[in-house]
Amino acid sequence: MEKVLKPMSGYLALLICLLLFIASAYLFITGTTAENIGTTILGAACFVVFFFFMKGLMIIQPNHSRVLNFFGKYVGTVKDNGLFFINPLYSSQKMSLRSENLQGQTLKVNDKMGNPIEIAVVMVWKVGDTYKAAFDVERYSDFVKMQSEAAVRHLAMSFPYDNLEDDHAPITLREGGDKINSILEQELTDRLSKAGIIIQEARISHLAYASEIAGAMLQRQQATAIVAARTKIVEGAVGMVDLALKKLSEENIVELDDERKAAMVSNLMVVLCGEKAAQPILNAGTLYN
Question: Does the record's keyword annotation contain Cytoplasm (predicted)?
């Protein structure tokens, strides 16, 4: 479990280091000039103490941290920025706390219906628990890459690309939008929490059918769109024909028998449902000629 430390300021230790360095240089030079072995040894001792104190000085940049160990035992994590002094016997591991982007590679997987698709995601993440990131996984950056790929594959196999084959699918990859992204974020959070990683945002950046079926699926989508449009046209045309017949009957404009009504309906349907404008033909004779 992560433990945050508050070490002492390093400015006093830095001042002591400077004094020790000056004293060691002075004593060493004086002892060498006067051929005084004791003074030379004292100067060397001051230099050793100086080096020992310097090893305990630590500078932490903003949004960085240091994970401290004492002979293999976790001591704590320093997250404050500035100059600090710690036990010189501590070993430290640098760790960034800044947000990082990961642009995943385009993966070719099968969706829920078995269709090969191409999918890629972009995510923003950062280290939240330094203890887990440092000790629970081997290399947390590689762990993020591998687990994000596994999460994307699982997401793609859990939902159909669209509802062409599954009309009752509540969520599809193509139309899921924010809900799909929310499911992706939760999937990544569950997988990466063991490494102390926080997922700040995850979005699908690329989604398409695989090249080998893209042409066929495009034709299928076009055909579905044409059928849907034709259905709307026919529904509208039937309503207009029904309205026309009712108006003619209510206004007593003309009396039509069943045969003439059938002919009128046929002509109106051709005019209303045709792809091109109909050419009008004037009837100069009677209604029945």
Answer: no
- Side chain identity at residue 241, one-letter code: V
Alpha-carbon distance 144 to 199, whole Å?
10
Query: 252 exposed, middle or buried (CB, 10 Å; 0-12, 13-18, 19+)?
Result: exposed
Two tokens at 267? 């002509």
What one-character-per-residue DSSP string does 78-146 give?
Answer: E---EEEE--TT-EEEEEE-S-EEEEPPPEEEE-TTS-EEEEEEEEEEEES-HHIIIIISS-HHHHHHH
3-state secondary structure at position 112 = coil
> For 34-57, b where at least 16 C-beta lie within 10 A, e where not — what string?
eeeeebbebbeebbebbeebeebb
> Are the CB atoms for 57 and 10 separated by under 8 Å?
yes
Please say whether the beta carbons of 193 and 137 come within 8 A: no
- Identity of the amino acid at 252: N
Q: How much is the pTM?
A: 0.68
Contact 51, 70 (CB under 8 A): no
Sign of the alpha-carbon dihedral angle for 275, 276, 277, 282:
negative
Alpha-carbon distance of 182 to 173, in angstroms, equals: 12
The two structure tokens encoding residue 161: 């690309």
pLDDT digits (tens, 9 = 90+) for 43-70: 888 888 888 888 889 999 999 999 999 9
**How many residues are listed for the chain in this entry?**
289
Percent of the chain with pLDDT over 70: 76
User: Are the C-beta atoms of residues 93 and 78 closer than 8 Å to each other?
Assistant: no
Name the DSSP class of 200: E
Q: Does 131 have pLDDT greater than 70?
A: yes
Question: Helix %, strand %, coil % for the chain, to 5?
Answer: 50, 20, 30
Instruction: Extract the tokens encoding 246.
Output: 């009712």
Q: Is 197 left (phi over 0), alpha (psi -120 to 50) or beta?
A: beta
Token pair, residue 105, equals: 């590679």
Paired sense of beta strands 100-103 and 82-85, if any = unpaired
pLDDT computed for residue 225 by the predictor: 67
